[in-house]
Design goal:
Length: 368
């Protein structure tokens, strides 16, 4: 199978990148004499022209000094740019809202490490995702933090295996295989969305609700896990199974929320977990149109916590630790890029907390 993501990088640039990193890691200390062009050619299996062009590039950056008749030496005082030892490519579906907070966490860590970030956004397009990954690789990144599409691709496992066979280390962010398998050697940091949904149901159940509904943005990478967690909670707590209302994000509207709310009320629902915040705001508006009170007639927990506090009735919300996710992904990738030593693979799931506000009735119960 042809590797969609593998660009052909010029050999001298590859060598220059390797030497740049070796200088940053002090394999070649400041002031040290480098091997001759011929020695580099033999050791690395490259032509003299390739070696010469790589050394000329490093000389132009001030990393080495070339002395005619003497050879090449690592600069005694390296320029500041040499301290930016890593370039990390980051691919997200969008830079807005949810992933804006995640990216802030990535930037926190990379800036502290003097690493450079190269950002790409696939805009939820599989074709753009492939082009972006190839472009990031051809730009010479040292590692990748990726939020790939696994829901709409034909074979998620094959895609994950292909991503982790790229020529640079990869950390997946907010993604993992939808099925658990011991053979999975991918490295990821994600929110345990199924655990967050489970805890939301448990919270509503603890408030006395038996007939709890799910309104879910789905098909959606997060929605898959939210629905799984919800169904596990309903089964574990022996609660009645109500119809689950699902639709893609771009199909939800106030009118649709009004119809779904009516259907849930006919089922006797007294509480609902709603993914995400915008859909929850529509349900509030639909409840107001139907002269229902929140949380009196319908207790609500939203999923995402992107502006949930600004709803007309502030929404209790499952709150994924977005910035923390970004920080962890960057820390893991930088650790992977350090030379030498055996390193464990990180497969980290963070269970999100629930932020209690007015929409579920818990705050009113604690003040009585």
């Amino acid at each position: 199978m042809t590797d969609t993501y593998a660009p052909r990088e010029l050999k001298f640039r590859t060598l220059a990148k390797q030497l740049r990193q070796e200088i940053a890691n002090e394999v070649w200390e400041p002031g040290a004499k480098l091997p001759t062009e011929k020695e580099f050619s033999v050791r690395r299996g490259l032509s003299l022209t390739t070696v010469r062009r790589a050394l000329e590039e490093l000389s132009g950056e001030g990393l080495i000094i070339r002395r005619q008749g003497s050879g090449s030496y690592v600069s005694a005082e390296l320029p500041k740019r040499a301290t930016a030892t890593r370039t990390v490519g980051v691919l997200v579906p969008t830079t807005a809202q949810y992933y804006g907070s995640v990216l802030a966490g990535v930037e926190d860590v990379l800036s502290q490490a003097s690493a450079r970030l190269v950002l790409a956004s696939s805009r939820y397009s599989a074709a753009e995702e492939e082009r972006d990954i190839a472009s990031l690789l051809s730009s010479g990144v040292d590692g990748l933090i990726l939020v790939p599409d696994l829901l709409f691709c034909s074979d998620p496992r094959e895609k994950i295996d292909r991503l982790f066979n790229l020529p640079v280390p990869v950390v997946m962010l907010e993604r993992r295989d939808f099925e658990t398998r011991v053979s999975d050697r991918s490295e990821y940091v994600r929110t345990e969305h199924e655990g967050g949904a489970y805890d939301a149901v448990a919270h509503l159940h603890a408030l006395g609700h038996e007939r709890i509904a799910l309104v879910c943005r789905n098909p959606n990478p997060t929605g898959v896990w939210v629905q799984r967690g919800f169904e596990h909670a309903i089964a574990d707590m022996s609660l009645p199974k109500l119809p689950i209302a699902t639709a893609p994000m771009n199909q939800w509207s106030l009118e649709m929320a009004t119809v779904v709310l009516g259907d849930l009320r006919k089922e006797g629902a007294t509480a609902a977990l709603v993914f995400g915040d915008r859909e929850a705001a529509w349900f509030q508006a639909a409840a107001r149109r139907a002269n229902l009170s929140i949380p009196g007639d319908l207790a609500m927990v939203s999923y995402d916590d992107e502006g949930a506090e600004f709803a007309e009735i502030p929404l209790t919300a499952v709150s994924p630790p977005k910035r923390r996710l970004g920080r962890l992904a960057a820390e893991i990738l930088l650790h992977r890029l350090k030379p030498g030593g055996l390193k464990p693979r990180h497969q980290i799931s963070l269970r999100p907390p629930i932020v209690i506000r007015d929409s579920c009735g818990a705050m009113a119960a604690t003040t009585q």
